[in-house]
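Q: I'm writing a short methods note and want an example of a predicted protein-small molecule complex. Could you take the sequence and the SMILES for zinc ion and return the bound structure as C-alpha cells? Please keep the output block clean; save any remarks for afterwards.
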Amino acid sequence: MIRQPRSILAALTAVCIAAVAVAAVQNPADRFAGVELSVVPAAGQVHMVQRPGGGGNVGVFAGPDGVLLVDSLFAPLADRLVAAVRSVTGGRIRFLINTHVHPDHIGGNEPLAGRDVLIFAHDNVRVRALERLRFPRRGGSFAPRPAAGARPVVTYNDAVSFHFNGEDVRAFLAPAAHTDGDTFVHFPESDVLHLGDVFRTTSYPIVDVYNGGTVAGTIAALEQALALAGSDTRVIPGHGLEVVGRGALVEFRDMIVDVRDRVRTMIAEGYTLEQVMAAAPTAGYDGQWGQEATWTANDFVPIVFYELGGGSLFVP
Ligand SMILES: [Zn+2]
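A: Understood, no commentary inside the block.
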C-alpha cells in the first residue's frame, strides 16, 4: 500500500475516534440534563430518592450516626444524589450497598467512593464488574467495564449486617432472580424493605439471563420478601413511582406465578413459542405491567418459556 493514503486514512481515523470520544463524554451528561431527583419518606429512618419515571430507586437510611445508601444511580447524577441526601440529613454518607450490578444501580459508585463512601455488594457484583456489563433490554445491550474505583470494596457471599443509627440493618443474597447477585436490604426497626430490581411496579420482571437471573428464583425471592413483610412494611421497588405496601408485592408475585403456570400448561400441550405468544398468556396483565416499551410481554414470556423447558435459549 502507498504510504500517503495510509497517513491520510490514519489521520481521518484519529479524527473519527476523537469525535466519538467527545460524543461519548458528552452524551451521558446530556442524557441527564435537567433531571431532578426527588426524595420521599419510606418509613422510620428510611427515605427513597427517585428520578422522573421511577428508575433506579435509591434507599437512604439516615440517622445520628450517618447515612447508608442502597444503590447509586448513574455517575452524572451523583452530585444530585448527594444533594438529595443533604435535603434529608447533614450527616456523613458512610456506606453504600449495591443491590446488583446494572449500570443504573452502580453508576454513582466511583464518585461516591471519591467521597470516602465504603461500597458493599454481593461477591458476584464485584466479579461481574470486572468485565464489560451486559444487560437484557433491547436483546442484550452492553455497557463498558466499570472503572476500578466503582467496584465494591467489601463483598459477602451470604449476608452482611450494619449496626448504627440505633438499628440493625440486614443485607442478604436473594435467590437468583433479577441476577445472581441480588441483595435485599431489610430495615426491621424502620420496617422497610429495599428489593432492588427483583421487584418493580412499572413492568414485568426483568429476568436477566445474561447475569444469572431466573424466573423460579424471582418467585422464590419474592416469597422471601413476603415472609419478611408485615401489613405495615413499606417496600421500595428497584423501579417504581412510589413506595408501596405488601399488597403490591403479593400482586406482582401472583401475576408471575399465574403467567408461569399458563405457559407451563401450554408447553405440556405442545405449544411452540410462537403459539404461546399468539395465545397471549399475559393478556390480563399487559395494561398494568406491559406498558414499558423496552420490556413487554414479548421480552418476558420467552424467558418463562425457555426456563420451563420449552426450548433452548441458544438455538443457533
Ligand atoms: Zn437491574
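A: Remarks, as requested: The longest strand covers residues 167-173. Residues 1-31 form one domain.
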